[in-house]
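Action item from last week, closing it out:
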Amino acid sequence: MTPAGTLDIPAADVGQVLAELIHIVTDSKRFTHPLSIDDVRDLAEQWWRASEVGHVFPDSDATTQFIDWHRQHHLGRKRLLDTLLVAAYYSAGVRSILTTNAKDF
């Protein structure tokens, strides 16, 4: 893992993360006062357009890494999108992540 602050970009984002954010924080089963879809979509767009955030996309290397990790770690169908997400970050040179859900990584 690369120590925090040593990446060429201060933050990196994959569009999938924004979609998951919108899905989660608008869910009334998870939150007593969920955000409105319009509010969180505007927030997601603000983060996506922030100059400090680099955009990461799954490319051929990321897809190959995803398949290799899925096979190597005997992952099931519930780990597909998270594994592809991490493979995209890894392929882009990201070696550390900030998350509130460390058990998934």
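Closing note: The first strand starts at residue 11 and ends at 13.
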